[in-house]
Amino acid sequence: MEPMELLECGPPLARESLNAEQAAGVARVFKALGDPVRLRVLSIVASHAGGEACVCDIAAAFEVSQPTISHHLKVLKEVGLLTSERRASWVYYRVVPEPLADLSALLNIPAEA
Residues with Cβ < 8 Å from 3, sequence gap 6 or more? Predict the structure, then answer.
């Protein structure tokens, strides 16, 4: 089961605890977001005009090699936070909003809890 699929069936933390499989899947997503470069990549893509960014635009924002950026993009795609589309020689990335909404819902704990 994919990490983000686990969230769809998982209740918010304040109602019911996660089982081991759910916790492992969610932890994988948070681990991907726990890297500063990946968090910036996600932010760059999300805030880019039109909601998508070319790999060339993403790479230009960092002082790391293209293979390093490609690795970070791959990790974000593997956990379901990004999707991509090849157009000619460039690849364009978009944020997948549902997984971020699922994370938000999972962590939404009322102040009185």
Answer: 25, 26, 28, 29, 79, 80
Locate 27 and state its tokens. Answer: 């932890």
Q: CA 7, CA 1: separation in Å to the nearest integer?
A: 11
Does the reported pTM lie above 0.90?
no
Summarize pLDDT for 18-76 with one digit per residue, the tens: 888 888 988 999 999 999 999 999 999 999 999 999 999 999 999 999 999 999 999 99
Structure tokens at 113: 């809890």
Q: Within 10 Å of residue 22's Cβ, how many Cβ atoms?
A: 20
Helix (H) or strand (E) holding 21: helix 20-33
SS3 of residue 60 by DSSP: helix
Closest-CA residue to 104 (of 9, 13, 3): 13
In the chain, what are the helix, strand and coil shares in percent, each to the nearest 5? 60, 15, 30
